[in-house]
């Protein structure tokens, strides 16, 4: 369930405009849109198929609990990011690293906090509290 942590770091690292040393703006904006689509799909799968199963035994995956609430916060920032990337794609002269960085800063901390919480909550040690090994093998992950 954990997304590749290197990928978000890549586009966040380049958000100061330094991406222009290695790729054109259009490629960087495509990277942002791919990140949006990847994370949106990832969260949709989790909320539709994985969280309901985990919530049967693990309270942190219940409706209105930590993981779903984190998704809401993250998606508010992601939706803003998508809007900015779309606008910059239509008119590249309006691109602003400062605006991009401010947008990323709004949801970067909740995103990485959420990823860390998922790693912790889905660790073997934590899963042992709720499931047998055989049950873990049958989980939809």
UniProtKB/TrEMBL annotation:
InterPro entries: Dimeric_xanthone_biosynth, Hemerythrin-like. Pfam families: Hemerythrin (PF01814). The lineage of its organism: Eukaryota, Fungi, Dikarya, Basidiomycota, Agaricomycotina. This is Hemerythrin-like domain-containing protein. Residues 30-118 form the Hemerythrin-like domain.
